[in-house]
Amino acid sequence: MSTDTIAPVKTKEKKEGLFSKKNRKALTDPLDDNNPITVQVLGICSALAVTIQVKPAIIMALGLTMVSAFASLIIALIRDSIPGRIRMIVQLIIVALLVTLVDQVLKAFMYDVSKQLSVFVGLIITNCIVMGRLEAFAMAQKPWPSFLDGVGNGLGYGIILITVAVVREFFGAGSLLGYQLVPQWAYDHGYVNNGLMALPPAALFIIGMYIWWQRSRKPKLVNVS
Amino acid sequence: MEALLNLFVKSIFVENVVFAFFLGMCSFLAISKKVKTATGLGIAVVFVLVMTAPINYLILTFMLKEGALAWIHPSLASVDLTFLAFILFISTIAGAVQMVEMVVEKFSPSLYNALGIFLPLITVNCAILGTSLFMQEREYGLIETGVFSVGCGIGFFLAIVLLAAIRERLKYSKIPDGLQGLGMAMVVTGLMALAFLSFSGIQL
Fold first, then answer.
1. Is B111 helix (H, G, I), strand (E, B) or coil?
2. Inter-chain contact B186–A205, Cβ cutoff 8 Å?
3. What is the ipTM score, two decimals?
4. Interface residue B176 vs chain A (CB under 8 A)
5. Which of A80, A96, B103, B123 could be cross-linked to B97 through a Cys-Cys bond (beta carbons 3.0 to 4.6 Å apart)?
6. Could you read off the pLDDT of A95-127 as tens digits, one per residue?
């Protein structure tokens, strides 16, 4: 019975263009309506750990987008030949392989950047967004939509990460991307950096507020979780 | 003995994996709506942690460290495979989680359905890989690793059950629509983390 229901869908998909409505949805949905952090509740650990400054947040978002996109692509390509019982090990080894690859390439060609990044690159393996999307999307979809879904989720993650990092760096250190924005005379007149912003709980409060703002714009998201 | 007790208490309260290092946040926030499911997830995490950390310790000591392969052949003494730590650690963890998944599916289908995607996601629960990496970084021995992993597991268990209890109570309070659910859970976690900050500095 299941084959009957699947077959017509497959023939339909063959006619779809590269950026059909459905594929565009796979790419843009995670940016807001189905955001990995605020709606799917995935990848929060690193969102708290790397958002004290903007620069690591941007690099982390780029790295995650790469790994998530290609892991989804590879898993979608070989999904039919993965035995269900050991799928997690297969998925993780592919993710770990991609992360190791990114790490080794950085070490070979951009040693200075790699020195700065090493911790963050390793963190991508345990980032639940990659694994969550593999389980929920790539295991059941064709390669191209899976790839777009991976890119979309990476970017959706990046949006939150950079928003939180901008708030934390500006109020916590008075700077953005390392450039001092709050002038010295403000400090001379008694302006003090907000110490709370340098502590991890600040990220929780900011993401909480972001979710509040997002859900008051879109009441249909309220019941999601 | 005293040092072990110190390590145990420290890993539960002072260096709580959730509130001090913010590891394992995703499942912590998503599965904490009811005390019952939270307890189930907590126990599963404790189980996986206690299983994997000592195994990873053995892998590290007898396979990866420089000179660890000398027991096969003396000429292998100079081989240093620590760069493989990530892949091997995560494989151990994935294997253990797959086992737990089969057991839960068999013996408690309701818990299996309640945990949903978050059961396989225990694999990428950073608390578990994090514990193994802390073990490597701080160069614990086998017994210390065991005590440390039990402590981290109980710390996670405690944190998730506490949050679930608070969230069950929150149902009866008036919260603005948009802040309900996840948003409030974030804010509550932040406040709990601030409270746990007060444990820092305690020495036994």
1. helix
2. yes
3. 0.74
4. yes
5. B123
6. 888 887 877 777 777 776 666 655 567 767 777
